[in-house]
Design brief:
The structure is a single chain. By secondary structure, this protein is α+β, with helices and mostly antiparallel strands. It has one domain: Peptide deformylase (Peptide Deformylase, Alpha-Beta Complex). It is built from 5 helices and 7 strands, in the order H-H-E-E-H-E-E-E-E-E-H-H. Strand 6 and strand 7 form a beta hairpin. Bound molecules: zinc ion. The site of zinc ion has 4 residues, from helix 4. Zinc ion binds next to helix 4.
């Protein structure tokens, strides 16, 4: 895949890997659990996390999931405050194998956007509060309750690990409003990838 070649090249130049963009099938694939007994997973874990953090901050995101830089492991990083506080790392969270183990009954509609779907935003209804179980970078299993923007970012990023994109969860009306953007993005991706397979699952 051209994506990998670019990734290698950029790594050599100490640049963050490129973001996998809408239209690329990678974004509709499921990521696998990080296996703490696997020497291969353990060998790559630190580098994967560092690349994800670097990409999130470099591209101006408040959250990033592995598949967005072609790492098909269940890892998410997020920092919902760095843009407003203009301070990186202070509120950085790294979650390995995160899962929502409880959701509030109350849903809330909030605008979302995504580094993989540039220039597109839309309202998505999701549970207001979630309890998340995850493994931290000290390999400790944690369970924490999140609400507000944190809950929102975590749910958006975990969706990426399951191959789901926020544009597929918008109301039909809102989705129709942005469908021409999505078509344009898919066309741009097709042109860029010169005939690579594209993701049709998101066609409304
Ligand atoms: Zn996203």
């Amino acid at each position: 895949m051209p994506q990998k070649e670019i990734s290698k090249k950029q790594k050599n130049q100490n640049l963050p890997p490129p973001i996998v963009l809408y239209g690329n099938l990678i974004l509709s694939q499921k990521s696998t659990l990080v296996d703490f007994d696997s020497s291969s997973d353990m060998e790559h874990l630190d580098a994967n996390i560092i690349e994800m953090i670097s990409a999130m901050y470099s591209y101006g995101g408040i959250g990033l999931a592995g598949p967005q830089i072609n790492i098909m492991k269940r890892i998410i990083v997020w920092d919902h405050q760095w843009v407003t506080k203009k301070k990186k790392y202070e509120n950085l969270h790294v979650m390995i194998n995160p899962e929502v183990i409880h959701s509030s009954e109350e849903d809330i509609g909030l605008y979302e956007n995504c580094l993989s779907i540039p220039e597109v935003a839309g309202s998505v209804y999701r549970p207001k509060e979630v309890t998340v179980r995850y493994v931290d970078t000290d390999f400790e299993t944690k369970e924490e309750i999140f609400d507000g923007t944190s809950a929102r970012v975590i749910q958006h990023e975990i969706d990426h690990l399951d191959g789901k994109l926020f544009v597929n969860q918008m109301t039909k009306y809102e989705r129709d409003e942005i469908s021409h953007f999505l078509v344009a993005l898919r066309q741009a991706y097709n042109e860029y990838s010169k005939g690579d397979e594209t993701d049709d699952s998101s066609t409304s």
